[in-house]
Design goal:
Layout (H helix, E strand, L loop, with lengths): L1 E7 L2 E7 L2 H5 L3 H23 L8 H22 L1
Antiparallel strand pairs: 1-2
Helix pairs in contact: 2-3
C-alpha cells in the first residue's frame, strides 16, 4: 500500500491509495462498502478545500481515482455474473 499523510488543523490523517490487486481480492459487498467510504472522503475533502483547511489539494483526485477503480471492478463482476 502507498501511504500519504496530510495535516489538517494540527491533526494527522492517513489516507491510503488502494492498489488494484488488493481490490480484486475483495467481494462485491466489500467493494460497495469501500466505495461508500471513499465517496464520503471526497465529500469531506471538498469541504476542507472550500474552507482552505487542507494542504494536500490532490486528495480529491486520489480518492476519485480509487472510486473509479472500485466502480470498474464492480461492473466487471456484474458482467461476469
Amino acid at each position: 500500500m502507498r501511504f500519504c499523510v496530510k495535516f489538517v488543523s494540527n491533526s494527522c490523517k492517513i489516507s491510503v491509495m488502494v492498489k488494484i490487486k488488493e481490490l480484486r481480492e475483495k467481494n462485491t459487498n466489500e467493494l460497495k462498502k469501500l466505495l461508500a467510504e471513499k465517496e464520503e472522503n471526497v465529500r469531506k475533502a471538498r469541504f476542507e478545500l472550500a474552507t482552505k483547511q487542507v494542504k494536500d489539494k490532490r486528495q480529491v483526485r486520489k480518492e476519485k481515482r480509487d472510486i473509479a477503480r472500485i466502480l470498474t471492478l464492480i461492473r466487471q463482476a456484474d458482467k461476469l455474473a
